[in-house]
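yo

u said u wanted the structure for the complex thing, so here. seqs first:
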Amino acid sequence: MTSDDDTRQLADEVKVGSRAALGRAITLIESKRPDHEAAAQALLHTLLPDTGSAVRLGMTGMPGAGKSTLIEALGSKLTSDGHKVAVLAVDPTSQRTGGSILGDKTRMTKLAINENAFIRPSPAGTTLGGVARRTRETMLICEAAGYDVVIVETVGIGQSETTVAAMVDFFAVVQVAGAGDELQGIKKGVLEIADLIIVNKADGDNLKRAQQAVAEYRAALNILTPADPLWQPQVLAVSALYDTGLDELWKIVGRHGRIMRDAGALAEKRREQQVGWMWALLEDRLKLAVSRHPLLASRLPALEVAVREGTMTPTAAVNEIIRELGLQK
Amino acid sequence: MTSDDDTRQLADEVKVGSRAALGRAITLIESKRPDHEAAAQALLHTLLPDTGSAVRLGMTGMPGAGKSTLIEALGSKLTSDGHKVAVLAVDPTSQRTGGSILGDKTRMTKLAINENAFIRPSPAGTTLGGVARRTRETMLICEAAGYDVVIVETVGIGQSETTVAAMVDFFAVVQVAGAGDELQGIKKGVLEIADLIIVNKADGDNLKRAQQAVAEYRAALNILTPADPLWQPQVLAVSALYDTGLDELWKIVGRHGRIMRDAGALAEKRREQQVGWMWALLEDRLKLAVSRHPLLASRLPALEVAVREGTMTPTAAVNEIIRELGLQK
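structre next:
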């Protein structure tokens, strides 16, 4: 799968919605073989004009928040409403575990066999950036394949929420009222990027606590100045188990999309995301080049130790690195 | 001021507390002349063993929050308690205005003539990173000069709060209850990094509103999981005008310092900050090198436009940049 003809043919098969072609295309995106990487970029280039039409929805939540159940319920609702739904994952732990704990078909048994849904686990990778790049490019392939809703999920580990928020139109945080009267804390940094806080498991004995949680999260959001003047983050109680609140959830996503589109803010947000993505990737690659540079590979650890121990200023260390790279202005 | 002897002599004069030497040292740090930059690094290297002994206090607040009045009142209290206080500034606007609106002596008339206080406006700079580097290195010089409290202030513009938080031990956000019953919104990202929210102007007609604000900020902080398990961010009402709450403010800073030191967390936090600083500087320099690269300077804008418009994937653009730089792995 290297020639231009092969690329064009695979692109065509993806566009007409062949699941087999979609799978092959994603495998190509996830491959680390240099010739595959080149072919993957050629494929993406061919498909770019057919991307961008989906609603890009990001979702995060701690283990136990019921994220999978919620995505399964929402995904089933959307497909029965005539949508084609892709569920992708950015799982920072997959680089350690090798396998993925997200987008796992065994967690979404109904969606897994739904012909209008496509579930792809998180690719393995050595860096969050690498995992995220593949997921982001897989999202584009899914859009070209006609999926009009892409849900990108992540667990709240490290910077993964920020990474996912940077590739979607709308970012939701799934919380649970939690046992006892203890309100489940929202991880720092996440409140800042949430367009919506979903209080899940708002059913049975949990209902009262969930409603209380909604009120408290609302109060907290009210003292923050919204990141986007066009949108005041919302709080919504749902029950994935009993399918309550999911219509309202989708209405909120839709309202956000309309407001952003009408103001031309959605297109601009995506353009900004693409440029931000380019610079983030470049930083990753430059750091990689630095750490692999023949003259620096051996020296870098010593420099980092000296800076860490305070025997060398960061400026002096950086000056030396830049000199070694031959990038001196 | 280039030879090693000059450096050693200036270092000695700084260490015995000569204000003139301190001024000359900082001028050297702020200079953009290559030979001055080299001399500045040599000076810093000589002084490093004498740094790190101060309490590093970061403070941010919107214009009108009464930050200057608060710093003047706190600084005066601390000097009368026997402390030597340095007030530095990271002002992202100084790169535009040329001059600085922070650390301005005319704003702190009492401190400006206080022999145990040292006020230095924000250096001019073309990037926030450049401004911050000079301020951070000035902080080290002040520590070597015997200042045991360094207050770094900034206005809430761009990333300046995060930048300041990354160079101090304790970060405080100054808010006002505000006119009417409107609670003053906290800028996103700032709530996340605050060790303390100071509700200023808690006096006269404002007292009730201030106490109400304290309660609401507390409630908001309670739904966030603390960034550091050792410290739950505090909220405190003060009146810089009537000198109320300043003792309690300093007690909180002290308690935070003790808790962090006893757990060995303060030293580790500073080590992490130094390494983080090194990588942030390296990123700045690498990006600068990219934008100034002869082969890329002309090509980069076109690449960024293609990525922005979605006609090129970020990955493809970055691959081309890396190739041009000759940094291909």
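Strands of chain A lie at 55-61, 85-89, 117-119, 149-154, 170-176, 186-187, 196-200, 224-225, 234-237. The longest strand of chain A covers residues 55-61.
cya
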